[in-house]
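Worked example

This section walks through a single chain of length 149. The input is the sequence exactly as stored; nothing has been trimmed or padded.
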Amino acid sequence: MSETIGFLLNDTARMFRRAYNARTRDSGITALQSRVLSYLARYPGIRQGPLAELIEVEPITLSRMIDRLEESSLVERRADPTDRRAWQLHLTASAEPLLDTLRETARDVVAEATDGLSDVERDELTRLVERVRANLSRRICQKDQKETA
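Given that input, the structure is written out below as tokens.
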């Protein structure tokens, strides 16, 4: 039986998450929490709504996750100076060493997953998956534009 590209990508992503979660279990950080921390490193001060859209979870799910990360002193909410009803999210100083460890773990999982591939094959795989993602992202954006028109 030949698997479809969608099935293969989805199944591979699930296996990546499982391998990553197994390696980060002792840290208490899940793959989704790690994504939140990574996005906060890229977009310091982002508000919860836009962050929920980026990681594709419901705002209430993100809010609970931020509560847990805040309780762990990894994230802090700061009042948004432009909107007193909103909060901006920031990493704390104690999150930085953990983020470095999580990035190293992610590199290890990728190295395991791409074992046996040459550098050229790894680069080609990355390029092709990025193109697939861009194609789907563009279609989603076009769909959103049609719905608002």
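What to look for: The chain is about 70% helix and 10% strand.
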